[in-house]
From TrEMBL:
Gene3D superfamilies: Histidine kinase-like ATPase, C-terminal domain
GO MF annotations, alphabetized: kinase activity
All copies of domain Histidine kinase/HSP90-like ATPase, residue ranges: 16-131
Keyword Heme: no
Pfam families to which the protein is assigned, alphabetical: HATPase_c_2 (PF13581)
Organism: Desulfoscipio geothermicus DSM 3669
Highest taxon listed in the record's lineage: Bacteria
UniProt name for this protein: Anti-sigma regulatory factor (Ser/Thr protein kinase)
Keywords: Kinase, Transferase
């Protein structure tokens, strides 16, 4: 199964809609609760990063029996220093975005924490490609 959503930069009214739809679909096909939780965090943070930082993009979920792949592809400013961007609390979000409660600088660290495999490719003034793989497994708790 594959689902794809268009995401519009600065569209805060619809921010999180794609991640919510992915969540419902993963629950419907019976993915492990722990897998759904991790995939939804990745999808939500990647979706919000397009809304906050990019012009437009797509969020895609590829669902397999053993894993979920979340892919975010955008047209935007790109990330000049990915290592720096991955640090907890690092954010270039301007004050008016922070006043809305976004831009805590925890999105990429959370994506990293929730992913079994993560690849980020970015080109300045072109865009960013985030691909995360989450294997379907119970939490073991
Ligand atoms: N899709 C993107 N396009 C351009 N820059 C991005 C993108 N995603 C993340 N970044 C950059 O990486 C920084 C850290 O991202 P993140 O950890 O999600 O924090 P936040 O979104 O709260 O700023 C952002 O502030 C921004 O500078
Ligand atoms: Mg973010």
């Amino acid at each position: 199964m594959q689902m794809q959503f268009e995401v519009q930069g600065m569209d805060f009214n619809r921010a999180g809609e794609a991640a919510a739809k992915i969540k419902k679909a993963l629950q419907m096909v019976g993915m492990e609760v722990h897998t759904v939780r991790r995939a939804v965090i990745v999808a939500y943070e990647a979706e919000l990063n397009i809304v906050i930082h990019a012009r437009r993009g797509t969020l895609t979920a590829h669902v397999y029996p053993d894993r979920v792949e979340i892919e975010a592809l955008d047209e935007g400013p790109g990330i000049p220093d990915i290592t720096l961007a991955m640090q907890e609390g690092y954010s270039t979000a301007p004050p008016h975005i922070r006043e809305m409660g976004f831009g805590a600088g925890m999105g990429l660290p959370n994506i990293n924490r929730c992913s079994d495999k993560l690849q980020i490719d970015s080109a300045v003034n072109k865009g960013t490609h985030v691909k995360s793989i989450i294997f379907n497994q119970a939490s073991g708790e």
